[in-house]
């Protein structure tokens, strides 16, 4: 992400109308976070699922963390790279 002419980073919350706060959670002394049951159910997250944590950065600061199922991330990457790889291998 790049800064605007005033040196400010764009806000991911302001750039997209689909963002909303789903829950407020705490980080314990071991750095662990518990996702509320309702949120896990809504997202289809079950015990043993692998989650990917991605970030929205500006400069050296992280402004937003995204959590998504690793299998969903893999599917997105495959769908983006599949057409590129098809073109390369022609």
């Amino acid at each position: 992400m790049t800064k605007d002419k005033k040196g400010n980073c764009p806000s991911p919350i302001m750039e997209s109308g689909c963002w909303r706060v789903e829950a407020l959670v705490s980080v314990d002394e071991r750095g662990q976070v518990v996702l509320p049951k309702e949120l896990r159910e809504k997202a289809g997250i079950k015990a043993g699922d692998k989650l990917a944590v991605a970030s929205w950065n500006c400069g050296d600061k992280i402004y937003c963390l995204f959590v998504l199922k690793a299998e969903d991330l893999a599917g997105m990457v495959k769908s983006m790279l599949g057409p590129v790889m098809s073109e390369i291998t022609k």
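The helical segments are 12-15, 37-43, 70-88. The chain has three helices and two strands.
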